[in-house]
Amino acid sequence: MSSYYCLVAGLPDVLFDGSKTAFTIDRFREDIYPSLSPADAKCIDLFFLAWDNENLLKVLREGSEVELARTGCYSKDALLDIIAQVKNGDARDAQVPAYLYDFLERYFASEQGEPRLWADVLGTYYYAYAMKAQNRFVSAWFTFNLDVNNILVAMTARKYKMNVADVVIGDNEVADALRTSSARDFGLSGTFEYLEALQRLSENDKLQEREHQLDEIRWAWLEDNSVFNYFTVERLYVFLQKLDIISRWAKLDSETGMQRYNELVDNLKSGLNL
């Protein structure tokens, strides 16, 4: 495993200095990504593949002339080439994640239908792929996010008398418990550390506050599980995920966005070990 002493040493100051030259995800790609080993770059690619998922669905929905807001691992032309390969029955490119081909084959073999459902299908393929990552930290991060999303969806489904099994995705112990348990806690108390926090979050009807609380939970997981990762790709991955959280809050309207941005930064500085 490669070590990145110089890169990691300056990350906290870059992220939290509050200046107008705050580090961005684009800068991460330009300054840090090229310095990674091939194996470590694949870990970081899992972050950007989420953007490719959004872009792929947009291209399928709106066509080749669609404008993409941001580029993941693949340009629009590259995504169009992958789509064409599947349509034409060409051999798969071994460098392209297999889950993209699996999804497209299923997509074109069906009547396509509701876009939201296809986002769920692609998400299922993506998480299954990412949870098999060779890096244990990154694999655990995706497993955690899948579990969190499933727990929140299950709580909402139960609240509105929906069939929980119809909305839970993936195939692991948490997903199985959510589908089969009738207990108030789905039988997860004592086995899922953040269950009580998610229960409180699910009872909050204010969407923005819910999102804020969810990001705090995600941030806490990143901190709790990277304590002993100092100058490795795991630390860079944590930085990228934190940067994504901060960036999303900064994109809100100017007044609310800055308020939430400053609140999150202050909370992190005072309550977390940076």
Architecture overview:
This protein has helices at residues 5-9, 11-16, 25-32, 38-62, 76-88, 98-108, 115-130, 136-159, 173-180, 195-202, 207-224, 233-250, 254-271. It is mainly α. The chain has 3 domains: 1-35 and 212-274, no CATH class; 38-130; 136-203. Helix 5 packs across helix 6 (98-108). The longest helix is centred in the N-terminal third of the chain and has 25 residues, at 38-62. Mean pLDDT is 85; it is low at 12-21 and 267-274.
Oligomer: single chain
Helix content: 55-70%
Structural class: mainly alpha
User: In total, how many domains does the architecture comprise?
Assistant: 3
Q: Indicate the proportion of strand residues.
A: under 5%
- Uncertain ranges: 12-21, 267-274
Number of alpha- plus pi-helical segments: 13
Mean pLDDT: 85
Task: Tell me the total number of β-strands.
Answer: 0
Instruction: Choose one word for the global shape.
Output: globular
Radius of gyration: 20 Å
Main beta-sheet annotation = none
Distance between the termini: 23 Å
Strand and helix order: HHHHHHHHHHHHH
